[in-house]
């Protein structure tokens, strides 16, 4: 009985502090990009921001099958940008070509196996820009679905997202073994888009 009371009080305290924190959080941000899909140019906006990155691009992704975004991440990595990805465990099981290319070219890709569904769609760029919204990093997200995406510039906001990224990365497993490819996917990856 005492344990149940203690847990109830603890839960109420945590819930109150969570909502109190949420309502108290007011950060100045600059909106530097906004788009809507289908066919709203969201992929182009994301690629443009990745191509401007100079230090880091950390990605949290539920679904990732966008060849243009994967190619931009690989270009960033070649420039010396720290590129890392945390994704949903379902992506590891089906391992899309875009994710496979990232792994094969040395991008650390982690799978969050603790979250029920890792439903984030976030990029944190250079510790001062956050891209987020409903859009998955997919062809369907750009061309077929009703989606939104917003680019926010704020070092303080990015710091909260970085902490969240680090929490998920710490609870994740790095994808190490990439199953052998069938001949041709690399050509598909580079020519399809």
Structure commentary:
The structure is a single chain. The chain is of the alpha+beta class and 193 residues long. It has a single domain (27-175, 185-191), classed as 2-Layer Sandwich (Endonuclease, Chain A), CATH 3.30.870. Helices cover 46% and strands 23% of the residues. The protein contains eight helices and eight strands; from the N terminus they run αβαβαβααβββαβαβα. The protein has helices at 2-24, 42-52, 67-78, 89-94, 97-104, 139-143, 155-170, 185-191, and strands at residues 30-37, 56-61, 82-88, 109-112, 121-125, 129-133, 147-153, 172-174. It has an eight-stranded mixed beta sheet, sandwiched between helices. Helix 2 (42-52) runs parallel beside helix 3 (67-78) and helix 3 runs parallel beside helix 5. It is globular, with a radius of gyration of 18 Å. The model is unreliable at 4-21 and 187-193 (pLDDT under 50).
Instruction: Catalogue the unreliable spans.
Output: 4-21, 187-193
Structural shape? globular
List the secondary-structure elements in sequence, H or E: HEHEHEHHEEEHEHEH
CATH class: Alpha Beta
Could you please say which CATH topology applies here?
Answer: Endonuclease, Chain A
Brief summary:
It is built from eight helices and eight strands; from the N terminus they run H-E-H-E-H-E-H-H-E-E-E-H-E-H-E-H.
Helix and strand topology:
Elements: H1 2-24, E1 30-37, H2 42-52, E2 56-61, H3 67-78, E3 82-88, H4 89-94, H5 97-104, E4 109-112, E5 121-125, E6 129-133, H6 139-143, E7 147-153, H7 155-170, E8 172-174, H8 185-191
Parallel strand pairs: 2-3, 3-4
Antiparallel strand pairs: 1-7, 2-5, 4-8, 5-6, 6-7
